[in-house]
Amino acid sequence: MKALPPFPPLFKERFDGLPLSSDGDAASEEFITRAHELAVSWLPADVRTRLETFLHDSSGPSVLVVRGLPVDSDPPPTPYAVGNMSAKPGKVMSEAWVLAVARLIGQPVTYQTLVKRGMAGGLVCDLTPNPNSIDKVAFDGCKKVLDLHRDFAVTSEKIVADALLLIGVRGDPRKEAQTTVCDFRALLAATSPSDVSILRSEPMRWNFGSAANNSFAVAEKFLITGPDSNPLVNIFEENILPVGAASLKGSPQLLEAYARLKETARQLAVGVWLDAGDLLIVNNSRAAHGRTAYTAVFDGSDRWVQRVYAKRELVGCPGEPPSRVLRFAS
Protein backbone atom coordinates (compact mmCIF):
# COMPACT_ATOMS: atom_id res chain seq x y z
CA MET A 1 0.00 0.00 0.00
CA LYS A 2 1.26 3.47 -0.85
CA ALA A 3 2.42 5.37 2.23
CA LEU A 4 0.12 8.20 3.29
CA PRO A 5 1.62 11.68 3.50
CA PRO A 6 2.09 13.19 6.99
CA PHE A 7 -1.27 14.55 8.06
CA PRO A 8 -0.52 17.38 10.55
CA PRO A 9 1.18 19.69 7.98
CA LEU A 10 -1.73 19.24 5.57
CA PHE A 11 -4.19 19.96 8.37
CA LYS A 12 -2.34 23.07 9.48
CA GLU A 13 -2.24 24.36 5.91
CA ARG A 14 -6.01 23.91 5.48
CA PHE A 15 -7.23 25.01 8.90
CA ASP A 16 -4.75 27.50 10.30
CA GLY A 17 -6.78 30.44 11.63
CA LEU A 18 -10.19 28.90 10.83
CA PRO A 19 -12.21 28.39 14.05
CA LEU A 20 -14.87 25.75 14.58
CA SER A 21 -18.15 27.55 15.16
CA SER A 22 -20.02 26.82 18.39
CA ASP A 23 -23.03 29.07 17.86
CA GLY A 24 -26.64 28.11 17.16
CA ASP A 25 -25.81 27.32 13.53
CA ALA A 26 -23.91 24.32 14.87
CA ALA A 27 -20.71 24.47 12.82
CA SER A 28 -19.04 26.45 10.12
CA GLU A 29 -19.94 25.27 6.62
CA GLU A 30 -16.44 26.27 5.58
CA PHE A 31 -14.96 24.02 8.27
CA ILE A 32 -17.07 21.05 7.12
CA THR A 33 -16.16 21.67 3.48
CA ARG A 34 -12.42 21.88 4.18
CA ALA A 35 -12.52 18.82 6.44
CA HIS A 36 -14.35 16.83 3.78
CA GLU A 37 -11.95 17.87 1.03
CA LEU A 38 -8.94 16.96 3.15
CA ALA A 39 -10.37 13.55 4.06
CA VAL A 40 -11.14 12.79 0.42
CA SER A 41 -7.60 13.68 -0.64
CA TRP A 42 -5.86 11.83 2.23
CA LEU A 43 -7.84 8.63 2.88
CA PRO A 44 -7.07 5.54 0.78
CA ALA A 45 -9.63 4.95 -1.98
CA ASP A 46 -10.91 1.66 -0.51
CA VAL A 47 -11.56 3.31 2.85
CA ARG A 48 -13.44 6.17 1.18
CA THR A 49 -15.58 3.68 -0.74
CA ARG A 50 -16.51 1.79 2.43
CA LEU A 51 -17.53 5.04 4.07
CA GLU A 52 -19.43 6.48 1.13
CA THR A 53 -21.50 3.31 0.68
CA PHE A 54 -22.06 2.65 4.39
CA LEU A 55 -25.62 4.00 4.58
CA HIS A 56 -26.62 2.80 1.12
CA ASP A 57 -25.51 -0.85 0.99
CA SER A 58 -28.43 -2.93 2.32
CA SER A 59 -26.19 -6.00 2.65
CA GLY A 60 -23.29 -4.17 4.27
CA PRO A 61 -22.24 -3.94 7.92
CA SER A 62 -24.26 -2.09 10.52
CA VAL A 63 -21.13 -0.80 12.26
CA LEU A 64 -17.73 0.37 11.04
CA VAL A 65 -14.60 1.06 13.09
CA VAL A 66 -11.76 3.16 11.69
CA ARG A 67 -8.70 3.03 13.94
CA GLY A 68 -5.70 5.28 14.17
CA LEU A 69 -6.91 8.47 12.51
CA PRO A 70 -4.37 11.25 13.10
CA VAL A 71 -5.66 13.55 15.84
CA ASP A 72 -3.95 16.04 18.13
CA SER A 73 -1.45 14.09 20.22
CA ASP A 74 -1.56 16.49 23.16
CA PRO A 75 -5.21 17.33 23.94
CA PRO A 76 -5.90 19.38 27.05
CA PRO A 77 -7.29 17.72 30.20
CA THR A 78 -10.67 16.09 29.76
CA PRO A 79 -13.35 18.78 30.27
CA TYR A 80 -16.22 18.09 32.63
CA ALA A 81 -18.64 20.72 31.30
CA VAL A 82 -20.73 19.08 28.59
CA GLY A 83 -20.79 20.91 25.28
CA ASN A 84 -17.78 23.09 26.05
CA MET A 85 -16.73 23.86 22.49
CA SER A 86 -13.73 25.86 23.73
CA ALA A 87 -12.28 22.79 25.44
CA LYS A 88 -9.67 22.34 22.70
CA PRO A 89 -8.77 25.80 21.40
CA GLY A 90 -6.58 25.45 18.34
CA LYS A 91 -6.67 21.65 18.50
CA VAL A 92 -9.55 20.52 16.33
CA MET A 93 -8.26 17.51 14.37
CA SER A 94 -10.80 15.17 15.98
CA GLU A 95 -13.63 17.59 15.15
CA ALA A 96 -12.40 17.78 11.57
CA TRP A 97 -12.27 14.01 11.21
CA VAL A 98 -15.67 13.23 12.72
CA LEU A 99 -17.35 15.96 10.64
CA ALA A 100 -15.47 14.92 7.50
CA VAL A 101 -16.56 11.30 7.83
CA ALA A 102 -20.12 12.35 8.62
CA ARG A 103 -20.01 14.32 5.36
CA LEU A 104 -18.57 11.31 3.50
CA ILE A 105 -21.44 9.07 4.60
CA GLY A 106 -24.12 11.79 4.42
CA GLN A 107 -24.66 15.16 6.08
CA PRO A 108 -23.77 16.19 9.67
CA VAL A 109 -26.84 17.28 11.66
CA THR A 110 -27.89 18.18 15.19
CA TYR A 111 -31.17 18.77 17.03
CA GLN A 112 -32.69 22.00 18.27
CA THR A 113 -33.74 20.43 21.56
CA LEU A 114 -30.14 19.52 22.31
CA VAL A 115 -29.09 23.10 21.59
CA LYS A 116 -31.84 24.50 23.82
CA ARG A 117 -30.90 22.22 26.70
CA GLY A 118 -27.27 23.23 26.49
CA MET A 119 -26.32 19.70 25.50
CA ALA A 120 -23.55 20.53 23.06
CA GLY A 121 -24.79 23.55 21.18
CA GLY A 122 -22.96 22.55 18.01
CA LEU A 123 -22.74 19.59 15.70
CA VAL A 124 -19.92 18.11 17.75
CA CYS A 125 -20.90 16.96 21.23
CA ASP A 126 -18.25 16.26 23.86
CA LEU A 127 -19.15 13.09 25.78
CA THR A 128 -17.31 13.08 29.07
CA PRO A 129 -18.30 12.06 32.59
CA ASN A 130 -20.13 14.69 34.58
CA PRO A 131 -19.60 14.88 38.37
CA ASN A 132 -23.32 15.64 38.75
CA SER A 133 -24.39 12.58 36.72
CA ILE A 134 -22.13 9.85 38.13
CA ASP A 135 -25.01 7.67 39.35
CA LYS A 136 -27.49 8.56 36.59
CA VAL A 137 -28.45 6.68 33.45
CA ALA A 138 -27.24 9.41 31.11
CA PHE A 139 -24.81 9.97 28.26
CA ASP A 140 -22.58 11.85 30.72
CA GLY A 141 -22.98 9.29 33.51
CA CYS A 142 -20.45 6.59 34.27
CA LYS A 143 -21.39 4.28 37.15
CA LYS A 144 -24.61 3.08 35.51
CA VAL A 145 -24.82 1.05 32.31
CA LEU A 146 -26.39 2.89 29.39
CA ASP A 147 -28.56 0.13 27.96
CA LEU A 148 -28.76 -0.69 24.27
CA HIS A 149 -30.99 1.66 22.33
CA ARG A 150 -31.65 3.26 18.97
CA ASP A 151 -31.19 7.02 19.18
CA PHE A 152 -34.49 8.93 18.74
CA ALA A 153 -36.38 5.65 18.39
CA VAL A 154 -39.59 7.21 19.66
CA THR A 155 -39.79 10.19 17.31
CA SER A 156 -40.73 10.73 13.66
CA GLU A 157 -38.62 8.66 11.27
CA LYS A 158 -38.18 11.68 8.99
CA ILE A 159 -35.80 13.35 11.42
CA VAL A 160 -34.23 10.30 13.06
CA ALA A 161 -30.47 10.33 12.52
CA ASP A 162 -29.34 7.68 10.04
CA ALA A 163 -25.98 7.30 11.77
CA LEU A 164 -24.03 8.38 14.80
CA LEU A 165 -20.29 8.75 14.86
CA LEU A 166 -18.08 8.56 17.94
CA ILE A 167 -14.41 9.56 17.82
CA GLY A 168 -11.97 9.09 20.64
CA VAL A 169 -10.10 12.13 21.89
CA ARG A 170 -8.78 10.27 24.94
CA GLY A 171 -9.34 6.59 25.68
CA ASP A 172 -10.50 5.40 29.08
CA PRO A 173 -7.15 4.68 30.80
CA ARG A 174 -8.69 1.72 32.65
CA LYS A 175 -10.33 0.40 29.46
CA GLU A 176 -13.60 -0.13 31.31
CA ALA A 177 -15.68 2.19 29.13
CA GLN A 178 -16.82 0.46 25.97
CA THR A 179 -19.50 1.36 23.47
CA THR A 180 -21.73 -1.70 23.06
CA VAL A 181 -23.38 -2.48 19.72
CA CYS A 182 -25.95 -5.05 18.60
CA ASP A 183 -26.83 -5.75 14.96
CA PHE A 184 -30.59 -5.85 14.30
CA ARG A 185 -30.31 -8.73 11.83
CA ALA A 186 -28.56 -10.86 14.44
CA LEU A 187 -31.10 -9.77 17.05
CA LEU A 188 -34.07 -10.76 14.88
CA ALA A 189 -32.49 -14.14 14.09
CA ALA A 190 -32.04 -14.82 17.82
CA THR A 191 -35.61 -13.82 18.72
CA SER A 192 -38.36 -16.44 18.76
CA PRO A 193 -40.87 -16.32 15.87
CA SER A 194 -43.73 -15.90 18.35
CA ASP A 195 -42.07 -12.85 19.92
CA VAL A 196 -41.27 -11.39 16.49
CA SER A 197 -44.93 -11.77 15.55
CA ILE A 198 -46.06 -9.91 18.67
CA LEU A 199 -43.44 -7.17 18.28
CA ARG A 200 -44.47 -6.64 14.65
CA SER A 201 -48.23 -6.67 15.17
CA GLU A 202 -48.83 -4.49 18.26
CA PRO A 203 -47.39 -0.98 18.73
CA MET A 204 -45.66 -0.01 21.95
CA ARG A 205 -46.66 3.22 23.65
CA TRP A 206 -44.19 5.31 25.65
CA ASN A 207 -45.53 7.92 28.07
CA PHE A 208 -43.18 10.68 29.18
CA GLY A 209 -44.07 13.27 31.78
CA SER A 210 -45.62 13.75 35.17
CA ALA A 211 -48.99 12.60 36.41
CA ALA A 212 -48.81 15.36 39.03
CA ASN A 213 -49.40 18.09 36.47
CA ASN A 214 -51.17 15.85 33.95
CA SER A 215 -48.46 16.65 31.42
CA PHE A 216 -47.57 13.73 29.18
CA ALA A 217 -45.80 13.33 25.88
CA VAL A 218 -46.80 10.14 24.12
CA ALA A 219 -44.95 8.17 21.45
CA GLU A 220 -46.24 5.07 19.72
CA LYS A 221 -44.36 2.79 17.33
CA PHE A 222 -44.14 -0.82 16.26
CA LEU A 223 -41.05 -2.37 17.79
CA ILE A 224 -40.03 -4.29 14.67
CA THR A 225 -40.66 -3.12 11.11
CA GLY A 226 -39.07 -3.79 7.73
CA PRO A 227 -38.14 -7.10 6.09
CA ASP A 228 -36.51 -9.90 8.03
CA SER A 229 -33.39 -9.44 5.90
CA ASN A 230 -32.99 -5.84 7.04
CA PRO A 231 -35.20 -5.17 10.08
CA LEU A 232 -35.55 -1.92 11.99
CA VAL A 233 -35.86 -2.48 15.74
CA ASN A 234 -37.12 0.38 17.90
CA ILE A 235 -35.33 -0.58 21.07
CA PHE A 236 -35.11 2.25 23.61
CA GLU A 237 -33.43 3.07 26.94
CA GLU A 238 -36.48 4.06 28.95
CA ASN A 239 -34.45 5.42 31.88
CA ILE A 240 -32.08 7.72 30.02
CA LEU A 241 -31.91 11.34 31.12
CA PRO A 242 -33.03 13.99 30.28
CA VAL A 243 -35.88 12.04 28.64
CA GLY A 244 -36.04 9.47 31.39
CA ALA A 245 -38.68 7.61 33.32
CA ALA A 246 -40.83 6.57 30.38
CA SER A 247 -43.71 4.27 31.24
CA LEU A 248 -44.56 1.53 28.75
CA LYS A 249 -48.11 0.78 27.66
CA GLY A 250 -49.02 -2.40 25.84
CA SER A 251 -50.51 -5.83 26.34
CA PRO A 252 -48.81 -8.15 28.84
CA GLN A 253 -47.64 -10.27 25.89
CA LEU A 254 -46.03 -7.24 24.21
CA LEU A 255 -44.29 -6.07 27.37
CA GLU A 256 -42.92 -9.55 28.03
CA ALA A 257 -41.72 -9.96 24.44
CA TYR A 258 -40.02 -6.55 24.58
CA ALA A 259 -38.24 -7.47 27.82
CA ARG A 260 -36.97 -10.69 26.21
CA LEU A 261 -35.88 -8.77 23.11
CA LYS A 262 -33.81 -6.37 25.22
CA GLU A 263 -32.21 -9.21 27.17
CA THR A 264 -31.29 -11.00 23.94
CA ALA A 265 -29.74 -7.77 22.64
CA ARG A 266 -27.59 -7.53 25.76
CA GLN A 267 -26.38 -11.09 25.27
CA LEU A 268 -25.47 -10.44 21.63
CA ALA A 269 -23.82 -7.06 22.19
CA VAL A 270 -20.16 -6.54 21.35
CA GLY A 271 -18.04 -3.93 23.13
CA VAL A 272 -15.81 -1.45 21.30
CA TRP A 273 -13.09 0.46 23.16
CA LEU A 274 -12.11 3.75 21.56
CA ASP A 275 -8.61 5.15 21.90
CA ALA A 276 -7.57 8.57 20.60
CA GLY A 277 -8.13 8.64 16.83
CA ASP A 278 -10.49 5.66 16.77
CA LEU A 279 -13.83 6.29 15.05
CA LEU A 280 -16.96 4.18 15.53
CA ILE A 281 -19.81 4.61 13.03
CA VAL A 282 -23.20 3.07 13.84
CA ASN A 283 -26.04 2.76 11.33
CA ASN A 284 -28.91 3.92 13.55
CA SER A 285 -31.45 1.93 11.51
CA ARG A 286 -29.52 -1.34 11.67
CA ALA A 287 -27.93 -1.49 15.11
CA ALA A 288 -28.49 -0.49 18.71
CA HIS A 289 -25.73 0.95 20.85
CA GLY A 290 -25.09 1.53 24.55
CA ARG A 291 -22.22 1.99 26.98
CA THR A 292 -20.73 -0.05 29.79
CA ALA A 293 -20.33 1.33 33.30
CA TYR A 294 -16.88 2.69 34.09
CA THR A 295 -14.84 4.51 36.73
CA ALA A 296 -14.15 8.23 36.44
CA VAL A 297 -11.63 9.99 38.67
CA PHE A 298 -12.11 13.58 37.39
CA ASP A 299 -8.43 14.45 37.24
CA GLY A 300 -8.37 15.32 33.52
CA SER A 301 -7.41 11.80 32.40
CA ASP A 302 -10.91 10.37 31.95
CA ARG A 303 -12.52 9.11 28.74
CA TRP A 304 -13.29 11.79 26.17
CA VAL A 305 -15.37 10.95 23.13
CA GLN A 306 -17.02 13.27 20.61
CA ARG A 307 -20.32 12.51 18.87
CA VAL A 308 -21.79 13.67 15.59
CA TYR A 309 -25.10 12.64 14.00
CA ALA A 310 -25.55 12.24 10.25
CA LYS A 311 -28.43 11.87 7.83
CA ARG A 312 -28.25 10.60 4.27
CA GLU A 313 -29.37 14.05 3.15
CA LEU A 314 -30.50 17.26 4.81
CA VAL A 315 -34.22 17.56 5.55
CA GLY A 316 -36.44 20.38 6.76
CA CYS A 317 -39.74 20.82 8.54
CA PRO A 318 -42.81 21.38 6.33
CA GLY A 319 -42.51 24.73 4.56
CA GLU A 320 -38.90 25.18 5.64
CA PRO A 321 -35.64 24.65 3.73
CA PRO A 322 -33.33 21.75 4.63
CA SER A 323 -31.24 22.46 7.70
CA ARG A 324 -28.47 20.96 9.79
CA VAL A 325 -30.52 21.73 12.92
CA LEU A 326 -33.56 19.44 13.12
CA ARG A 327 -36.68 20.06 15.20
CA PHE A 328 -38.92 17.49 16.84
CA ALA A 329 -42.66 17.88 16.21
CA SER A 330 -44.32 19.91 18.94
TrEMBL record:
Molecular-function annotations in GO: iron ion binding; oxidoreductase activity
Domain of life: Eukaryota
Keywords, alphabetical: Iron, Metal-binding, Oxidoreductase
Pfam families given in the database record: TauD
InterPro entries: Clavaminate_syn-like, TauD-like_sf, TauD/TfdA-like
Domain TauD/TfdA-like span(s) in chain numbering: 98-309
Protein name (record): TauD/TfdA-like domain-containing protein
UniProt organism field: Klebsormidium nitens
